[in-house]
Amino acid sequence: MEEEILKLIEKHEKYRRRGINLIASENVLSREALKALHCDLAGRYGSNWYGGSRYAEEIKEKVEELAKKLFNAKYAFITPLSGNICDLAVIFSFTKPFDEIAGIAKEDGGYPLGYEKFDRRFYPLPVKDYVINAEELEKIKKDFPLVLIASSIILFPHPLEAIAKKFRHNIVYDASHVLGLIAGKEFQNPLKYCQAMIGSTHKSFPGPQGGIILTNDSWVAEKLSKYLLFDYDKGIGLVDNPHLNRIASLGIVMEEMLKNGREYAKQTIKNAKYLAKCLDELGVPIKFAEKGYTESHQILLNLGEETFNFFKKLEENHIFIDCIGRIGTAEVTHIGVGEKEMEEIAHMIADVYKGKNVKDKAIKIAKEFYEKFYE
Known about the structure:
Layout (H helix, E strand, L loop, with lengths): L3 H13 L3 E2 L9 H7 L16 H18 L3 E3 L5 H12 L5 E4 L17 E4 L2 E2 L2 E2 L1 H4 L8 E5 L9 H8 L3 E4 L4 H5 L12 E5 L10 E5 L2 H11 L15 H38 L16 E3 L6 H10 L2 E2 L5 E3 L1 H5 L4 H15 L5 H15 L2
Parallel strand pairs: 1-12, 3-4, 3-7, 7-8, 8-9
Antiparallel strand pairs: 2-10, 5-6, 9-10, 11-13
């Protein structure tokens, strides 16, 4: 019998490593982090319920400590299988059915969570240029059991101090997109103003797909633990098997980030700003030139209805972005791309915008950098 799935995996890896990945919500794992994903832990439970869990338990404990150290937090939950599970954990912890949750509408770049599916109501906070508008906040005359700051488009920091002064409690910051920048101390520090920080671990943070929650508040940690930690007596919450291989891989990436996270985060933002500037000068419309384009790993095309067609043209030329026009520099920075190469990539994107074919050049550049990254 032919091993069709293995062949498709090989085709996928060859294809993706022959393309320039500028998808803002993706990253690439180091060889060591990948090794953890396909080690023996992948088929194990790893708790004191099962024999043979001695080292698995030690791995979990060490990764928790690494998370606390990296993000300067007192409590860390590494069990969530995704950022979305983190969102649900805080919603169930701090609200009850039919409560109103304040956040960022998907039309304003917010995370498109289906609040109504969980019998919650959504209240859109005022937003300007994908950032919560601090001045307009003062017009709100109500409080909320939860303020969830979750952005899919996040180019600039949110005014967390103003938000904290306005609402004061149960403010949760979803750092999914900017977690790697926060780990590198190059973006705002949510835990200074928010009761918890949640996020996925595979966007600007170059880890495996999964989630993490951090807090300095013991009461918050206690509430969250009911949904995130195994509890035989009271019943399982949102997580049963947290996938040990993922946790081990996450720990390896945390060790990497403790060594070079600041340099990586700083270069990621530099690359984003420089790419945006070059594209703008080459005639590719980019949003927010008047604000310096971005303070994160994301930049945003300004093509309106033509965005989807351009996204497909870039894909044909082995340059990958997403269909809403977000361009991200996290993965290319992680594999070693600097400003010199970003300028070259900008010219390639501009050439595609003008109708030219750059497929062979994109394949060559990507192949060289990925081979060097994995050598």
